[in-house]
Amino acid sequence: MEFTAEQIAALIKGEVEGNPKAIVRDVSKIEEGRPETLTFLANPKYNHYIYNTQASVVIVNKTFVAEQPIEATLIRVDDAYRALALLLQMYQASQPKKTGIEQPSYIDGSAVLGDFVYIGAFSYIGEKTKIGNSVQIYPQVYIGDGVEIGDNSIVYPGAKIYKGCKIGSNCVIHSGAVVGSDGFGFAPGPDGQFEKIPQVGIVILEDNVEIGANTTLDRATMGATVIRKGTKLDNLIQIAHNVEIGENSVLAAQTGIAGSTKIGKNVMFGGQVGIAGHLKIADGVKLAAQTGVGGNLKKENGVYMGSPAIEAMQYNKAYVIFRNLPDLKSRIDKLEKQ
Fold first, then answer.
1. Three-class SS of residue 311?
2. Per-residue pLDDT reduced to its tens digit, 113-169
3. Dihedrals φ, ψ of 48, to 5°?
4. Under CATH, to which class is 100-315 assigned?
């Protein structure tokens, strides 16, 4: 890979400030910049690195104001982080993709495979599955009977997709993820033992969904557990049966959502968020890390913290009081002695 600053600027619709012929052969972090590499600056916390970085070209926001001389060539764009993402997507798309069927692997005779499909070694493709064009299925993947996978989707090594589940186009399922395992459904019997409730539904991933490593999505008791288009789930997330998550939402690692909860679109959840079952979460809600939700959140675009969850501004006021409780107790003890 070799590009000039002006070539890169043309790809991301940026403005060059410095040497337009500066060469880029690799990428690097701004604090570890090397000659002939490209880096970016989007977070103001890293501003001080730009004055000493050895990187040849730096993508910055148009609003960035230099306080010292900068040796690197700058490319100014509206959104540096998004511009870098676009470049990396272009780079990834330019890489050659594997095709063909490696052996040993098992593909049932009733399975339908699209064009330019890759099936890695030791994979299992069940009865009446439908695999779209340019799908990449890496080694040791299990695809159950009746599964459908749309065009250009990727299933990384060791992922499992249980029978009947439907995966859209341009989806990514990372290693160790399980799509369609049984929901946690048991009915207590008169003798105190629990009887399993068969989980006869499926999981549906709409287009452009990404599922992180070791994340689990339970199949519905009846109907479907649904992840709407454009949603991204981090690693180590648990989605229970009959949950629905709206489009273009992002959930960070170790989030757990209990059964039958309906979550709106464009939500953002931090790490270790926990949500009880049978709730409704409005569109655009943001939950800070470790927020615990035990009731419906009806306010669109609301921001919540704490467990049980309260609005972020109220939480911050309450935290000031909580932090001062030891001092308040000491003062009360002195007053009681007096």
1. strand
2. 999 999 999 999 999 999 999 999 999 999 999 999 999 999 999 999 999 999 999
3. -65, -20
4. mainly beta
Beta strands 194-196 and 186-188, pairing class? antiparallel
Tokens 């939700």, residue located: 293
Where are the domains positioned within the chain? 3-94, 100-315
Which sign does the torsion angle of CA 135, 174, 148, 143 carry? positive
Active site residues: 241
CATH 3.30.1360.40 fits 3-94, yes or no: no
Q: Count each helix (H run) and each strand (E run) in the chain, helices first.
A: 4, 40
Q: Quote the mean pLDDT of the chain.
A: 96
Whole-Å CA distances, 4 to 38, 83, 246, 299:
10, 16, 41, 48
**How many residues are there in the chain?**
338
| Alpha-carbon gap, residue 299 to 296, rounded angstroms | 9
pLDDT in tens, 247-290: 999 999 999 999 999 999 999 999 999 999 999 999 999 999 99
